[in-house]
Specification:
The strands form eight sheets. Strands 19, 20, 21, 22, 23, 24, 25, 26, 27, 28 and 29 form an eleven-stranded antiparallel sheet that branches. A four-stranded antiparallel sheet has the order 1-9-5-6, with no helix packed on it. It has a three-stranded antiparallel sheet with strand order 2-8-7, with no helix packed on it. A hairpin with a 4-residue loop joins strand 25 and strand 26. Among the domains are: about 70 residues, no CATH class; about 50 residues, no CATH class; about 140 residues, no CATH class. The chain has three helices and 29 strands. By secondary structure, the chain is mainly beta. The N and C termini lie far apart (about 125 Å).
Length: about 375
């Protein structure tokens, strides 16, 4: 059917019906149609007209009026005709707000442009939605960086980072929980709680180390302090590593006292025997040892009266080898003594035994085993000595 009004001018490319049969050299005006339907071009420029293979210039070689074309020179009989009606380019104008969707954009909009590079400069501009109504606004990368740094500690949940997280400023009093840094103090951990300001827990959610609210003492709530390297300790009473204040050894244990002579003979090499109460305990703090004992003798065995001096052997540590190092001890209780003189004890230098001395009216002499100590004797005492 024919068009009502002007023929469509966008996207309607149609071959014109051949009207060369009407050429007679005098009739210059002819009807324009395509497929029997009249075409009403809006302008001569919308047509491509060829006469005998020669393109005709619009408005010069022909004009259009309605659905008719008028040639400046009437074609003659036998002339060939070819024509096409073209659509014109469309100007879409300015799209209305919010009418272009993502589906209408080519994926090459971003991928086809130059990448900004590995580093984003503070002055680089980015587009962000203001969140108030879908309005896009521009902002500098430096402002986004400042916002991220300021809100970094307000993250809810866990934060997983590849590499290191480096704080750049100090913490402040009243921070609920903050990690900071200064060039003088290094890493700073600050907290505030109703019971503890700082709490360190293990994977079982057990509190291991804590600092009470407002306090300065560090409390180990579970477990012990263990050094990963031997021969390490704690400097007590000083604020610097002073060798004289280093406590690097503490030990508790048991030892077995026995009867020895001045040459350290006796013990398991002889046939003496001891009661069930024969026992010893020691505490070693640094280089000082306290050794207490109960020596219950049931048989002196092969020991003779020539064995004198030491009497108690088997100390857990050898005393200091300094020639002038003699260390005192005391007898708390003794029974079965053959002597009526008082007995006292000491540890000489480089020894593992306890020397015994009896004191008479005037002078002190070494105690002699069989003359001063009898079988079924019981001695309870202790010594302090330095290793």
């Amino acid at each position: 059917m024919p068009y009502i009004g002007k023929s469509p001018q966008q996207g309607n490319y149609s071959k014109l019906d051949d009207f060369s049969g009407d050429f007679d050299g005098s009739d210059a005006t002819h009807a324009i149609a395509s497929g029997g339907t009249a075409i009403d071009p809006i302008t001569p420029n919308a047509l491509i007209i060829s006469i005998n293979g020669v393109l005709q210039e619009p408005s010069t070689d022909y004009t259009v009026s309605g659905s008719n074309i008028t040639f400046t020179t009437a074609p003659t009989a036998g002339d060939n005709f070819f024509g096409v009606a073209m659509g014109e380019g469309v100007s879409i104008g300015t799209p209305s707000n919010s009418t272009i969707t993502a589906a209408k954009l080519s994926s090459a909009v971003l991928t086809g442009h130059t990448d900004i590079g590995a580093a984003i400069a503070d002055a680089d501009l980015l587009l962000v939605d203001d969140g108030a109504g879908g309005t896009l606004r521009k902002t500098a990368a430096s402002r986004i960086k400042t916002y991220v740094e300021a809100s970094a500690m307000a993250v809810t949940g866990n934060v997983t980072a590849t590499g290191t997280v480096e704080p750049a400023g100090d913490t402040s009093a009243g921070d609920n929980a903050a990690i900071g840094y200064t060039s003088a103090e290094g890493l700073i951990l600050t907290g505030q709680g109703s019971t503890d300001d700082i709490t360190i827990k293990n994977d079982a959610d057990t509190t291991v180390v804590n600092v009470a609210t407002g306090a300065t003492d560090v409390e180990v709530s579970a477990g012990n302090i263990l050094f990963g390297t031997s021969s390490k300790g704690v400097y007590l009473g000083v604020t610097s590593a002073t060798a004289a204040n280093l406590l690097d050894d503490y030990e508790e244990g048991t030892w077995t006292p026995d009867v020895r002579d001045a040459s350290n003979n006796g013990g398991t090499s002889e046939s003496q025997s001891y009661g069930s109460n024969n026992s010893g305990f020691y505490t070693k703090i640094g280089r000082v040892v306290n050794a207490s004992f109960v020596l219950q003798i049931t048989s002196l065995g092969t020991l003779t009266t020539s064995y004198s001096g030491r009497i108690v052997g088997g100390l857990p540590f050898t005393s200091s080898s300094t020639a002038t190092s003699w260390f005192a001890g005391s007898i708390a209780y003794a029974t079965g003594l053959a002597t009526t003189d008082a007995l006292s004890m000491y540890v000489s230098s480089g020894d593992t035994g306890i020397q015994m001395t009896k004191w008479g009216v005037s002078t002190g002499t070494e105690a002699t085993l069989l003359s001063d100590l009898s079988a079924d004797g019981l001695i309870i005492g202790s010594v302090w000595y330095r290793v």
